[in-house]
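Exercise 4. Each item below gives a protein and its sequence. For each, produce the structure-token representation.

Item: Porin (Melittangium boletus DSM 14713).
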Amino acid sequence: MDLLETALVGVLLTCPVLASAREADEPLNERVRAQQEELEALRARLQVLEKNQAQDHDQLTRVRAGMTPIAPQLVPPGPATAPVETARASAMPTQAPAAKATDLQVEWGAGAPIFRSADGVFSFKPRGRILLDVSGTGGSRYEARNITTTGSRALRLGIEGGVGPHFFYQFESDFAENGVDVVTAFLGWRHKVAGLDYDIRIGNLFNDRGLEGSTGSDATPFLERTVVGTSVIPQRGFYGVGAQGRLFGPSWHASLTLSGDDVDGAYAVSDSRTLLARAHWNPLKTSHAVIHLGLWGFDERLSSAASTVTRNTVIGGRFNGNLRVSTGSLTGATHDTGYGAELGGYVGSLWAMAELGQRQVRLEDPRDFSHLAWSTSVGWFATGETPPYNPRFGNFTQPHVSRSVLDGGLGALELTARYESLDFTHALLAGRGWAATVGVNWYLNSFTRLMLNGIHWHTDNRSGDFTGGDDGQTVSMRAQVSF
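Answer:
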């Protein structure tokens, strides 16, 4: 019993004595009735005071937890002789006001704030990507290839958000080459069917095509995607306006996309039409090991404005425009198909992935064209992190850094190696090439990374300014922030 309760009990014990002294001449039954009323009023008042104390304790707990205090609803003390009905009404429990949609909750995500309405209906998050590169090449027998350049692989700004549990959206623009390009821009709906998650998206969509072909530029383990991801690709490129459906199982996913060209201003002719499908499966998936299998393919009916399909594919880094493997001139294309396979996984901190892809182009004259590309790559986190593989989508993502530099740790250190080959020689004037790359990635935290790639490359082009066999080395570095 606390001090307040002790005082009240003392008052209750003395009231009958005082009342009997003052009212010795009143009838006994009247005095008893009056004492009972006073006792009921005091008991009710005690309940109110106990409730006010509980509310004070709850307010203190919310403040310590960083939550917004609830406006107090205290009942002021009244005279001990207040009517019983008034005291009982004052003692009725009150409810805290419900959260309003206009109330805002903010939490810090990976490099950016996440805004949510207090009722949980609305969510919003800014997105951004800064990838800055420097590249130097030497050893080529062509001096024009021995150059040093700088550039921005990506300078993106965008938003993502949702309304309720089902509706979501995303929009991003890229300013990488002093221009404005709309990249990802879609509306989506997610739900369940037969116990499986699914989503449907409509807008300018990123390809779901191959392991690295479906990985964002800020999450690839090397500065540039493999030659499978850069050469076995629809003529329209990495994006197309259309619709995509995705279905997710406990260890697999499948997607189907129907799209036209990407966002552009060409409205005088029909778009190309692309049908793209991909599926991946993890026959083994534990917290320490994963096996990845994947298949994909696309069929593209080319627009009359896209009949020229000449390609110059990067082989030693993105920022040397003279260092490419060329198809030679290819015109009169009407249709193309591509397909590929993926195999890989990880154990502990070690990962390995291999990809194979082929593209066939139907030409009016003189004959069809096809080419083959493949790659194999490995990586190891020397600091013990789990490889950043996303089993839901079957692609790479950003790692979870155990000891961030911002918290006084060392960050995460990843060592990588890759060999890739590209063969265009099914065409008369086409070339071929290969590259061997070693790299190191230092993740300062989960959204900041420094990269270094050393590449030994070989090209053998049959057309253009750099024909014949040529070898050299390229060193590339990148600083990036992505959120």
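Check: DSSP finds four helices and 22 strands in the chain.
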